[in-house]
Amino acid sequence: MDQNNQMRRRVLQGLGALVLTALLPATKVFAAMFTPPQKLPESQSVYRVKGRAWVNGKRVNAGTRIAPGDTVKTAAGSELVFVVGDHAMLLRGGSHLVIERKDENEIGSLLIGGLRLFAGKLLSASRNKGLRIATPTATIGIRGTGVYLEAGRDKTYFCTCYGEVDVEANGDASSKESVVSAHHDKPLYIYGKGQPGQCIHDANRMGQLNHNDDELVMVEALVGRVPPFA
């Protein structure tokens, strides 16, 4: 009899969890199913590495320190999640990223002045309002945001997951756009070539490409924050 009661209890608990999930708003469902990590200790840069990654040509391990001035690369199919100061990043496979110092004279500082993504895919969460991200086709001024980008030789996919950015095409100064986004509102393609004033195109038809809210919650949690939509 006790076993039957226990089984009924488990079934009812499971049904209750399903009902709760169904009643949650779409933007809250992930929070009921995903437990974010703890804030990373200041002595630690690397949260997770899958496959192969390198910092300044040296293979990444759990004890690798990453700082402004470093070059970070990942092999195809790999992934690196790391923190520099209060800036958290997820770098996917086949990527080449240079982390620029805010002040070249401050060698030990963890303040980032810019990110140069020569190739690959990057998810970035920062509250640094003076940050600039550059790809082969675009320059983006960040005003404290979560962003995702994929950099190719001829075009860049860029999603302002939340926050404010100023986007400009490298090959045409007249192609520029400012975006204010609450939740993946206006992804863009920035092309290397095009008619004057027309190198930036709306990418909404592609939707939220190759990144998700769980990943944004994860990287923000690593620096002790939550994204504004959570």
Task: Offer a concise description of the structure.
This protein is α+β, with helices and mostly antiparallel strands. It has 3 helices and 15 strands. It has 2 domains: 1-33; 34-221, Jelly Rolls, CATH 2.60.120.1440.
How is the secondary structure organized here?
Elements: H1 2-23, H2 26-33, E1 46-50, E2 53-55, E3 58-59, E4 71-74, E5 79-84, E6 87-92, E7 96-101, E8 112-125, E9 132-134, E10 138-142, E11 146-151, E12 155-169, E13 172-181, E14 188-191, E15 200-202, H3 213-221
Parallel strand pairs: 8-9
Antiparallel strand pairs: 1-5, 2-3, 2-4, 4-7, 5-6, 6-8, 7-8, 8-11, 9-10, 10-12, 11-12, 12-13, 12-14, 14-15
Written description of the protein model:
By secondary structure, the chain is α+β, with helices and mostly antiparallel strands. It has two domains: 1-33; 34-221, Jelly Rolls. It has three helices and 15 strands. It has helices at residues 2-23, 26-33, 213-221, and strands at 46-50, 53-55, 58-59, 71-74, 79-84, 87-92, 96-101, 112-125, 132-134, 138-142, 146-151, 155-169, 172-181, 188-191, 200-202. Strands 8-9-10-12-11 form a five-stranded mixed barrel. A hairpin with a 3-residue loop joins strand 9 and strand 10 (138-142). The longest helix is centred in the first third of the chain and has 22 residues, at 2-23. The termini are far apart. 35% of the residues are buried. The model is unreliable at 11-24 and 26-32 (pLDDT under 50).
